[in-house]
Amino acid sequence: MRILVVGLNYAPEHAGIAPYTTGTARALAAAGHDVQVVAGFPYYPQWRTAAGYRGLVRRETDGPVRLTRLRHFVPRDSAGLGRILHEGSFAAHAWLRARGLRDVDVVLGISPSLLSLVAARQLAATAGAAFGVVVQDLYASAAAELGTPGGSHVGRLEGRLLRAADGVVAVHACFAEALRQRHGVEPGRITVIRNWTHTGPPADEPWPEEHPWPAGCGPVVLHAGNMGAKQGLENVVAAARLAEERDEDVRFMLVGDGSRRAELCRLATGIRRASVLPPVPDRHFPGMLAAADVLVVNERPGLRSVCVPSKLTSYFAAGRPVLAATEPDSPAGIELAAAGAGVRVTPGDPEALLTAALQLGRDRERADRFGESGRRYAKTVLGADEAARRYRDWVTALGERSPG
């Protein structure tokens, strides 16, 4: 079949949803489908356009996948009006560039971004193609939980787009439930396909000797990935400040980039037990995770249905214990309990975070049990081959529903 994927994020972006959109496109192309992707210029999680990307359009190939990259607005602040302009500029550009396409059987829209789903739906209607949506985040839930102005309008738009789709993929069962209850999507149109572990084994690329953790710093508690509003990483810096005040032997490392990184650097200034570092090369990422004593997922209090943190798949594969500051009924909390891979504490409580980090960092036997359980869960539940198979089957079923 001829498949058009409309998604803002794609490799070489390595954080967030880009690895999953990329992997899905590659799996469909490997199955013999003709796959085109319309994506933005790389910008995430730094929130600035990657070096070397100039002009309005750039044509690339990713193996058999044909890729059209489009320039779009990248705001300094990823919320509010800036976010709307960000998504809207990509959606408008995608529609303008692809509106002449007719030889398409299936159009897949990736959410987020929500506005790109508008373009994807219009393109599907113009081409007489089936319209499928992959839901990585739920906008209505995020707007409600983050207190975003205009959230009710966003929710109504999201619901209309999802109900209009011929098929919807939810990346977690809790998302599927929200799609049914909040947006009225018919159960028969929802397919749950889990995000997979997309990092290689740590042994393949060990943490290099030129980048060791500071000597004698005690247990290393690592957060790796996006530094945005949802993560609420001020809580981790506050835990490091408590450790400093109490002279606890522990080091909190925040490695990555994002809209809140500059503020986190400011907050961590003068705290010896906190370090904010830039992202490491992809080839060193698995080794870095495996070299830590504890891996942290931190979320703002009150977040229960916004997203499944993509970092969890990599954390589990690393075989290290996970410490999650999240609500018990959040996707992260549910996932951690299912994997049996670590400990959950109340979000926004630096005292609880520090206490749990010290306990996990000092109890090697318990930490190893959690790590092995996470690794086992990654292999048996979050396998890439199974996800690829399910995406191929889902797209085949969509193609059979194509109105054209």
User: Given the C-alpha coordinates, what overall shape results?
Assistant: globular
Counting copies of identical and different chains, the oligomeric state is single chain
Give the CATH topology of the largest domain: Rossmann fold
Proportion of strand residues: 15-25%
Assigned CATH architecture of the largest domain:
3-Layer(aba) Sandwich
| Lateral strand order in the biggest sheet | 3-4-2-1-5-6-7-8
How many E-type strands? 14
Q: State the helical fraction.
A: 40-55%
Structural class: alpha/beta
Instruction: Kindly report the average pLDDT value.
Output: 89
| Element pattern in H and E | EHEEEHEHEHHEHEEHEHEHEHEHEHHH
CATH class of the largest domain: Alpha Beta
Q: Give the termini distance in whole angstroms.
A: 12 Å
Number of domains: 2
Rg value? 21 Å
- Low-pLDDT regions: none
